[in-house]
Amino acid sequence: MNEAKIDYPKPTYAWSLVGFLTLAYIFSMMDRYILGYLIKDIKADLLFTDSQVGLLTGPAFTLLYALCAIPFGMMVDRKKRVWIIAFGIAVWSVSTMATGLMTTFVLFFLARMMVGVGEAVMSPAAFSIIGDSFPKERRAKPIATYSAALFIASTITSFMISIIFKVTDGAEKVMLPVFGELSSWQVVLLAVGAPGLLVALLFFFLKEPPRTESSQSDTAKLSDGARFAAKRSATLLCFVTIFTTMVAIAYAQFNWLPEMFSRTYGEEEWGRSAYAARNGAATFLFALPTYFIAGFVSDAWSKKGRTDAPFILAMVGLFIMVPATIIAPLMPTGWTAFGMLCIATVGVGMVSCVGVTALLQIVPGHVRGSIVAYYYLAITLLGGMVSPMLVGWLSTHVFGEDKLNLAMSAQPAIYGIPTILLLPVTYRLYRKELAAREGLENKL
């Protein structure tokens, strides 16, 4: 279907949907980020090793998150998307609260798995709604706005954690009505999970846009996305290497950096409260502007005919992100390491911002939900699941838990160097698929 013939929603309505989706995604990301700040307390209370923590921050969350993305993505292509999102928010919010009440490794693992189940619905549904709300040349900014929730949540979580740890400093237990005596880390998880239930209720009353192209629920088939991906397997596999590397680095950072700074550069200067406050400020100053600038540049460049603009920006971000994250943990002081990570944040922000925009450029509307789900399956399993676990395993079994910084340096090298070497092939395949897609659209 020609883009010019599609009756998209009014801009005010479309952007209001983006606002609500971004709000939900902020709560989703807060539930993910929070555990990295609580590792020290959880290890002390429940006697977990770094390897076990790696399992909780990696496979426990990401396994079902990735596996559920496919059926939920197919459901997104057929059913009412705002109701699917409401269900997901309710599940992950209750599960986050339940995580704070678990006292064994197995129960903790199971609760984190349910958080992943709930969050699996969010992005396939959100990107499907955004794709039906904006024409192709105007999608980068709304997608950047939605994706900015990654760093908005990081900022909010960082400042919230800084305040909580200052207030509860020295207090081993906190007394709460109904729940009784709890550790501070348990109170944090309850506080982060509860507000999401109100957001879930909100989505039951939202009206979603009509589906565009042949993405209408009565014509979409469950196998369409799988057939599309199978025919373009080489292109899509190479494509996801860039974004798998970004996810691997990001997951390792938000799960392990607070602990790494505390162990490597000293609890007095780089304890969790100090790191959280500085990280919140750096995220606000570096990550958020990067998101919106990258989205603006991508849209402006695309309007001038460079429809590969999102992909080019992703490649630039990769070249910034990988070297900086390898070098940062090896720096001699906390401030020099933190400075390198601020540079890396710019690269992570660029890649994060344009990933789905680049993907949607080569995906037809009737399989958007399914293909986005496949995309998240790949980057989550290969990056989000393996990366935190890899850092924990390297720390416990290779470098020693007192050398967590070496594990943090090895991880981006393992992911990033092969991805950079593959870039010429990846870009050539992407350009070929983009040309084929644009040729098909011009005939319709």
From TrEMBL:
Q: Give the main localization category.
A: membrane
**Source taxon at top rank:** Bacteria
InterPro entries named in the record = MFS, MFS_dom, MFS_spinster-like, MFS_trans_sf
**Localization per Swiss-Prot or TrEMBL:** Membrane
User: Keyword set for this entry?
Assistant: Membrane, Transmembrane, Transmembrane helix, Transport
Q: Which residues form the Major facilitator superfamily (MFS) profile domain?
A: 17-427
- Lipid bilayer topology: Multi-pass membrane protein
Key word tRNA-binding present: no
Q: Where are the transmembrane segments?
A: 12-35, 55-75, 82-103, 109-131, 143-165, 185-206, 234-254, 274-297, 309-331, 337-360, 372-393, 413-430
Tell me which GO cellular component terms the UniProt record holds: membrane
Q: Which GO terms describe its molecular function?
A: transmembrane transporter activity
The identity of this protein, by name, is Sugar phosphate permease
Q: Which organism is it from?
A: Litorimonas taeanensis
